Amino acid sequence: MQLEFIGAAGEVTGSCHLVTVGDRRLLLDCGLVQGDPRDLQRNAEPFDFDPAQIDAVVLSHAHIDHSGRLPFLVKSGFRGRVYTHRASRDLCRIMLRDSAYLNEKETEWENRKRERKGLGLIEPLYTMQDVRQTMSRFKSIEYDVSKKIMPGVTLRLLDAGHILGSSIVELWLEENGVHRKLVFSGDLGAVDRPILHDPSRIEDADLVLMESTYGNRLHRSPEQTREEVVAIVEQARKARGNIIIPAFAVGRTQHLLYAFARYFDDWRLDRWQIFLDSPMAIEATEVYARHADLYDAESRALWRQNKQRPLLPNLHLTRTANQSMRLNAIHSGAIIIAGSGMCTGGRIKHHLKHNIWRKDCHVVIVGYQARGTTGRMLVDGANRIRLWGETYIVRAQIHTVGGLSAHADQDGLVDWYGNFRNRPPLALVHGEPDAVDVLAGRIRSELGTGVIKSRPGLKLDLLGL
Fold first, then answer.
1. What was the pLDDT predicted at 310?
2. Which of 374, 404, 434 is the last residue in one of the domains?
3. Residue 112 belongs to domain with CATH number
């Protein structure tokens, strides 16, 4: 009985962990690596295991750094089931299709250049057909339902409060009469955040894998965050500029729209025109609407109100490229929400091109930015950024609003792990080294727990726990 760390070990993206029980093997997540071009190239490298020998995948949630390599796994020979929550299945259908489209288009552009140079052609990481085959392998299960998914492995999903359908994974493992319980946090949401329930609490385990994205940071309180947003909106109004918000299509966008509706009057949003400029985010928002039974009580009430009248009367959904391009002519009074969330592709790059050099523009960062991405450069104070080979000076004001993050901060992570009464061994994943170091130090000092810092290829003997 063994656990091996494959991805999101010593870094945030590319979540993937291999569990072996007897002659059975399953993966926890199978995500894309994100970051600079060298990081992206790693996605096309062969897996560190034989995909045909993997019996199942348990997917914690739909975000692409957790799900985005699944079609490549299927393309490489995987024929097992992918177990996840029904909402995650529906979101993956959108996100994986979009990822395949981008793969196909980028490969098409690259092959045109290679043909002109007399070079051999390349193939996309995966295609729409690969995604269709992948989706046929999905098997959805509900929260709080135990299911035996193979001999020696029983699974239960609990609400992680991160995005719709996000799950904490409980695995009961049995080999030769020896039993172990493994808990994988997935990505944990913050407490008292809109739409979703707080992360579920668990009291016992033999080993815990916990994310550590914000292991070295504390978010502002909801009250402080609301004050921060009010100040940004008022600054932008006085400057007569636009507000540009790079947002992940799934999770961040829906939380932003909820916050805009909830505080529409307090934030004086009637003075603005709000544009959701992301076809994928629009589709994802429709999925959120279909799964309103997963909302917390306050959000369900707001959703019922939405059926009577629009929550945001000044919200415009820009689905087509032409509609998006027309936003380039707007120099004042627009709040534009667009992907990608790390500013590495999609329509946000066009909006940065037309706004980043304007002193009256405000760019609001509301999610994690991986190293090597344009979003991370802006957060780190870059004076210039490059878009499509051209350099643009950064004159816009850059705001990082951590309180709008979908991830638990350091206090939230320590509190969630502290609920385990038996203080099981803890392995930290999904975090940059400095975040892991700070979080591990605090947990050791406050809770007296042994902490394992994951790294690719590290194997843990679960029978020896």
1. 57
2. 404
3. 3.60.15.10
